[in-house]
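User: Hi! I have a protein structure encoded as tokens and I'd like to know what sequence might fold into it. I'm fairly new to this, so please keep things simple.
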């Protein structure tokens, strides 16, 4: 995808809010309760795919100063807004980049926690893969990144 082309979210930015259920502290507790040996998040690396205007990743980085945080989003306008908020808070543990999640590879970094909230349905299909976004995000995360724990949230239509 051409990362420089304006997206619909550049024209109409999305609501800016946080999702407590995606907080690595909560994920860590849930993982431990299910018997997974997840690393304690306070000093860990956290990536948010489709971070929008930063309403979720910025407060997390603020609250966990010894963690390393990264957020990417395709929308340059939204990433600029997230950066403005991070700069105001003087955050040095948060990297924000305008980037297509489909272009992520191991060179971008390794992460212990990966958050994808509300971005499933927006991801394009992988080349050569007849599947839609959800499958392509799962493939991107599991193939390209050495993740320990990933959380996905998506909206879906009610089923009968
Ligand atoms: C519905 S909004 C959700 C934003 C936020 N995560 C939330 O849950 O409120 C979808 C977001 O995904 C971003 N997005 C869509 N396709 C993307 C892609 N291929 N790579 C990175 N971000 C993408 C959009 O720019 C937008 O900010």
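Assistant: Happy to help. Inverse folding works backwards from shape to sequence: for each of the 160 positions I chose a residue that suits the local structure. Here it is:
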């Amino acid at each position: 995808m051409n990362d420089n082309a304006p997206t619909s979210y550049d024209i109409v930015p999305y609501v800016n809010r946080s999702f407590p259920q995606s907080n690595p502290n909560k994920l860590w507790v849930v993982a431990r309760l299910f018997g997974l040996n997840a690393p304690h998040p306070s000093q860990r690396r956290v990536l948010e795919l489709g971070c929008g205007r930063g309403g979720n990743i910025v407060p997390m980085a603020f609250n966990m100063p010894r963690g390393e945080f990264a957020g990417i989003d395709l929308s340059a306008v939204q990433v600029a807004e997230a950066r403005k908020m991070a700069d105001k808070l003087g955050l040095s543990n948060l990297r924000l980049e305008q980037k297509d999640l489909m272009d992520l590879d191991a060179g971008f970094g390794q992460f212990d926690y990966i958050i994808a909230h509300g971005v499933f349905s927006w991801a394009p299909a992988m080349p050569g893969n007849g599947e839609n976004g959800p499958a392509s995000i799962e493939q991107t995360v599991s193939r390209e990144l050495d993740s320990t724990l990933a959380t996905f949230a998506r909206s879906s239509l009610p089923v009968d």
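A useful reference point when you look it over: Helices lie at 8-11, 24-33, 57-63, 76-88, 133-144. Feel free to ask if any position seems puzzling.
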